[in-house]
Amino acid sequence: MGGENAKVELLDYWRSPYAMRVKIALEEKQINYECNEQELLGNKSSLLIEMNPVHKRVPVLIHNGKPICESLVIVEYIDEVWAHTSPLLPSDPYLRSQAKFWGDFVDNKIFSSGRELWQAKGEKQETIIKEFIEGLKLLEEELKEEKFFGGDNFGYVDVALVPLTCWFYALEKCGNFSIDAHCSKLIGWAQRCKDRPSVSKSLPDPVKIYDYVLELKKMFGLE
C-alpha cells in the first residue's frame, strides 16, 4: 500500500498550519509528493469537494487515488503507512496515547485560540491572549527541558504544533503582546524545529502570514 512508487498528492493552501503539518510529515519521511494548491477564499475546486465532501477544506492527502482528511489523522496515516523511516509516534502504547492527547490539545486549545485572537478586539482579545498564553505554558511544562516533545526525537506533537509558530508574529502584532516574554522556552523549541529542513521548507515567511492576516481583517471589516 505504501510502496515507493505510490502516487501521493496533497491538496494544500499555503497559509494553512494544518496543511503545513502534513508537508512536514511527508518531508520527514522523505516521501515524494505533488502539492496541489487550492483556492479557499473563492470557488473551491471540484477536486477538493470530491475528495473532502464533508468539510470541503484542506488538507487532503490523496494516496493512490484514495483521500485521507483532517491533518492529525493524515499525519498518523503517513506514520503508519511509511513506518520504515523516521517514526513520529512512539511505539509504546502509553506514550503514544499521551502524544495524541497533546496533539488534540494543540488543535482544540492552541489553534482555536490563535484563530480567534487576530479577529478579536478590546477586552475579548485580552481574554483570548491570556488563554492562549496559558495554553502555551502548559505545553512548556510538557516539554520540560527536552529538545523536542519526543525527547531527542522530533515527533508527532512537534509536527502538530510547530506550524503555528509562523503565525506567532501576526498574532503578536494583532494583539500587541510578546510570546517570548511569557514562553521563552517554547520559542527556543520552535527555533530547534526550524533548524530541521522538513520544517524550514514547509513554513512560510511570518511577515507574509501577517500581510495575509491584514488582508483578511480588511476583507471581513475587522480593522
What distinguishing features does this structure have?
single chain; 223 residues; alpha+beta; Glutaredoxin; Glutathione S-transferase Yfyf (Class Pi), Chain A, domain 2; 4-stranded mixed beta sheet
Describe the structure.
With 223 residues, the protein is α+β, with helices and mostly antiparallel strands. It has helices at residues 17-28, 46-51, 71-81, 93-117, 122-143, 156-161, 168-175, 179-182, 184-194, 197-200, 206-219, and strands at 8-12, 34-37, 60-63, 66-69. The protein has a four-stranded mixed β-sheet, covered by helices on one side. It is globular.
Strand content: 5-15%
The overall pLDDT, averaged over residues, is 95
Number of strands: 4
Low-confidence stretches: none
Number of domains: 2
Strand order of the largest sheet: 2-1-3-4
Second CATH tier, the architecture of the largest domain: Up-down Bundle
Percent of residues in helices: 55-70%
Q: N- to C-terminal separation?
A: 49 Å
Rough shape?
globular
In short:
The protein has 11 helices and 4 strands, in the order βαβαββααααααααα. It has 223 residues and is an alpha+beta fold.
Helix and strand topology:
Elements: E1 8-12, H1 17-28, E2 34-37, H2 46-51, E3 60-63, E4 66-69, H3 71-81, H4 93-117, H5 122-143, H6 156-161, H7 168-175, H8 179-182, H9 184-194, H10 197-200, H11 206-219
Parallel strand pairs: 1-2
Antiparallel strand pairs: 1-3, 3-4
Helix pairs in contact: 1-3, 4-5, 7-11
